[in-house]
């Protein structure tokens, strides 16, 4: 893995169909009233990914392995291992189903054979790419397609002449109620992806071997902040185009007309281009999600994280199979994608809290552990996500 790409791989990993779908739904249904949730998500992602990267540089291990090594009690170690396996396994299975469903929606616009059939085909493609370990060049091509799609969204927004005053007014009136909380959690879950913490630490641990640690930390911090901010800008532009096309309009957004937000530039070809973007984003994330799960589970269980090892392959194979199974049973596509993002939002506090605790182990991490400012930022992130998740649970019963 090239030394200077881990931050951009993380950004590309969270710009999946969940990001495009959730941002579109947020803009269409709530305008700019939920931009606060996106800004919080970008800030939180930068904070948490910085911790994961520093952990990888300092220990030379992935997140799960390093965290497990720092737990002394055998009982707590077993509990921690079970939690990682269950949380990342369940979270990535849900996320994988959303990735495959999003990509399937895209392909079904070109050839209507049903999203279930396409999900199965895509699952096989992801499986073959990971099996041969040649996914990197495919991922690079697909990432370029995603960024091309982002460019078209931006051009569309400019051509549509957005009402900047209305956007700013809505931004200054943030919304959080029972109707919006699922979308808020989805925006958080699609940006602060728990599995990216494991993926980033593992990539950094492998790519910085033999490099000066101070320089590696500085480079990773700068690169991650730039890449994640770029991903956040793409999400904001998608939200803005959906707002212009659907918010307070007679038409409502669904899977069949989501691409209409691009019509000011692309006309009748808008739906096809949007479908291509969903396919690109979906397949990219469908590769990285099981890969990250394999790093996390193998690290927690003390198994080899070599991509050719049987255990490593068994984990990502299981994640892909679960994702395909969920995507092919007939769930409606948009709720399935939104559910996957909301699930990540609810799982995030567990992983973030463990990460925050581990990053304060100065015996192992030394100067690469958390400073007081990192702890304040991390504590704010964890408290906010826990509070939003609690609000969601309470709202179900009121």
Secondary structure blueprint with pairings:
Elements: H1 6-14, H2 17-30, H3 35-59, H4 63-69, H5 74-110, H6 115-132, H7 135-159, H8 164-171, H9 181-191, H10 194-207, H11 213-246, H12 263-266, H13 270-301, H14 310-328, H15 333-358, H16 362-365, H17 372-397
Helix pairs in contact: 1-10, 1-11, 2-9, 2-11, 2-15, 3-9, 3-10, 3-11, 3-17, 4-13, 5-6, 5-13, 5-14, 5-15, 6-13, 6-14, 7-11, 7-13, 9-15, 9-17, 10-13, 13-14, 15-17
Pfam family, one: Nramp
Keywords: Membrane, Symport, Transmembrane, Transmembrane helix, Transport
Transmembrane segments: 7-28, 34-53, 74-95, 110-130, 142-160, 180-204, 225-247, 272-302, 314-331, 337-360, 372-391
Describe it for me?
Its main location: membrane. InterPro entries: NRAMP_fam. With 398 residues, the chain is mostly helical. It has a single domain, classed as Amino acid/polyamine transporter I, CATH 1.20.1740.10. 79% of the residues lie in helices and 0% in strands. The protein has 17 helices and no strands. The chain has helices spanning 6-14, 17-30, 35-59, 63-69, 74-110, 115-132, 135-159, 164-171, 181-191, 194-207, 213-246, 263-266, 270-301, 310-328, 333-358, 362-365, 372-397. Helix 2 packs antiparallel against helix 9 and helix 13 packs across helix 14 (310-328). The longest helix is centred in the N-terminal third of the chain and has 37 residues, at 74-110. The N and C termini lie far apart (50 Å). The mean pLDDT is 81.
Principal-axis shape equals globular
Average pLDDT taken over every residue: 81
Mind telling me the C-alpha Rg? 20 Å
Head-to-tail CA distance between termini: 50 Å
CATH class: Mainly Alpha
- Classify the beta-strand content into a percent band: under 5%
Helix content: over 70%
CATH homologous superfamily identity: Amino acid/polyamine transporter I
Unreliable stretches (pLDDT < 50, length at least 5) are none
Provide the CATH topology.
Answer: Amino acid/polyamine transporter I
- Major beta sheet summary: none
Membrane topology: Multi-pass membrane protein
InterPro entries: NRAMP_fam
Subcellular location: Membrane
Keywords: Membrane, Symport, Transmembrane, Transmembrane helix, Transport
């Amino acid at each position: 893995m090239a030394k200077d790409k881990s931050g951009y791989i993380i950004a590309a990993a969270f710009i999946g169909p969940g990001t495009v779908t959730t941002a579109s739904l947020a803009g269409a249904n709530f305008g700019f009233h939920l931009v606060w949730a996106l800004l919080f998500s970008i800030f939180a992602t930068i904070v948490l990914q910085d911790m994961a990267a520093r952990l990888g540089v300092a220990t030379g291990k992935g997140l799960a392995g390093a965290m497990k090594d720092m737990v002394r009690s055998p009982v707590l170690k077993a509990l921690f291992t079970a939690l990682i396996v269950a949380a990342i396994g369940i979270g990535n299975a849900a996320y994988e189903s959303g990735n495959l469903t999003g990509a399937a929606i895209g392909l079904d616009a070109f050839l209507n054979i049903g999203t279930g059939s396409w999900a199965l085909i895509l699952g096989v493609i992801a499986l073959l790419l990971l099996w041969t370990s040649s996914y990197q060049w495919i991922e690079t091509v697909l990432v370029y397609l995603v960024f091309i799609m982002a460019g078209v969204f931006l051009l569309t927004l400019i051509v549509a002449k957005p009402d900047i005053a209305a956007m700013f007014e809505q931004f200054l009136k943030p919304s959080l109620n029972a109707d919006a909380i699922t979308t808020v959690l989805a925006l958080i879950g699609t940006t602060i992806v728990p599995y990216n913490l494991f993926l980033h630490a593992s990539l950094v641990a492998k790519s910085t071997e033999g490099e000066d640690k101070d320089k590696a930390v500085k480079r990773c911090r700068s690169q991650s902040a730039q890449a994640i901010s770029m991903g956040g800008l793409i999400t904001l532009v998608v939200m803005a185009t959906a707002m212009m096309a659907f918010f307070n309009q007679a038409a409502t957004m669904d899977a069949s007309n989501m691409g209409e937000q691009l019509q000011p530039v692309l006309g009748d070809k808008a739906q096809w281009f949007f479908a291509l973007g969903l396919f690109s984003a979906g397949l990219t994330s469908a590769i990285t999600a099981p890969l990250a799960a394999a790093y996390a589970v193998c690290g927690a269980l003390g198994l080899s994280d070599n991509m050719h090892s049987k255990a490593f392959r068994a984990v990502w194979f299981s994640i892909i199979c679960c994702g395909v199974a969920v995507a092919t049973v007939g769930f409606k596509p948009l709720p399935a994608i939104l559910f996957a993002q909301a699930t990540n939002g609810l799982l995030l506090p567990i992983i973030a809290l463990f990460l925050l605790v581990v990053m304060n182990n100065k015996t192992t991490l030394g100067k690469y552990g958390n400073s007081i400012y990192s702890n304040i930022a991390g504590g704010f992130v964890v408290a906010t996500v826990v509070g939003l998740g609690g609000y969601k649970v309470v709202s179900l019963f009121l």
